User: Fold this.
Amino acid sequence: MMPGNLYIVATPIGNLEDMTFRAVRVLKEADLIAAEDTRHSRKLLSHYSITTQLTSYYDHNQAIKGERILTALREGRNVALVSDAGTPCISDPGYQLVRDAIAEGIRVVPVPGPNAAIAALSVSGLPTSSFTFAGFPPVKEGKRRTFLASLATAIGTVILYEAPHRVVDTLSDIDTVMGNRQVVVMRELTKIYEESLSGTAISAREQMLAGRERGEVVILISPAAEDGQASNRPDPDEQLKAALDKGHTVKEATALVAAATGLPRRELYARALLLRDQR
Ligand code: SAM
Assistant:
């Protein structure tokens, strides 16, 4: 008997409309959907009137569930894997299942769509021609610093995922270990409160502490100086301070730095107000 196909199906990272037509069709036509969290995925599936049978597949049941999913595939059933958000296998369960399926000659088919790292990079204003996606930094400070130090000479823009409650500590460590880099924190991508914070790691940290500590984030770090232009640019905060020192108003300083850096005016204006009040 011909084995079924294993479809790796990307789903939205916050905005239900970011579902592709193909993802909906594949999920409707599959014999079984394996989901990281069945309760979570049920909301998405019912929104698109997908009634395919659901089973769970997450980190702690991978061994048992993986075997059952492989059995279904061997029996000729088509299985679609989804995670809670974005592309399965990218800092989400699925890697082992894909490896096992490939080893058995089962066809693994990507159904591409949302991914937080690529969405963040595309709007960050940091170099996009090469990048290093490093996933989640380790939780313990010592290991995290070693990890960040190893990324100091990585090729291109460095992209990190981070849990909301660890962002502030990780930004401190980026400052300590990686030096003066331009950092962009993209928060709540595709959601109502989507925003981007930009500056040095320390200024991004201050902005996070100023009451915006919640929500999912992607951290992007400009390449090491020899790899690109971004980290050679003066820090936008320094540029704003210099303009304010010269006697420019907040509005004028914002306009000057926006023209020089291409950074969004709204953020620069908020930064300029903060810097003026700190003086
Ligand atoms: N598989 C997912 C993907 O393709 O992007 C990533 C899953 S990983 C468990 C979750 C992390 O992705 C979050 O901690 C955050 O760093 C990032 N992330 C996911 N959704 C996001 C969003 N809407 N805005 C910003 N970051 C997001």
In short: The chain has three domains: 6-114, 117-226, 234-278. The beta strands are 6-9, 32-35, 54-56, 79-82, 108-111, 131-133, 157-162, 183-187, 195-199, 217-221.
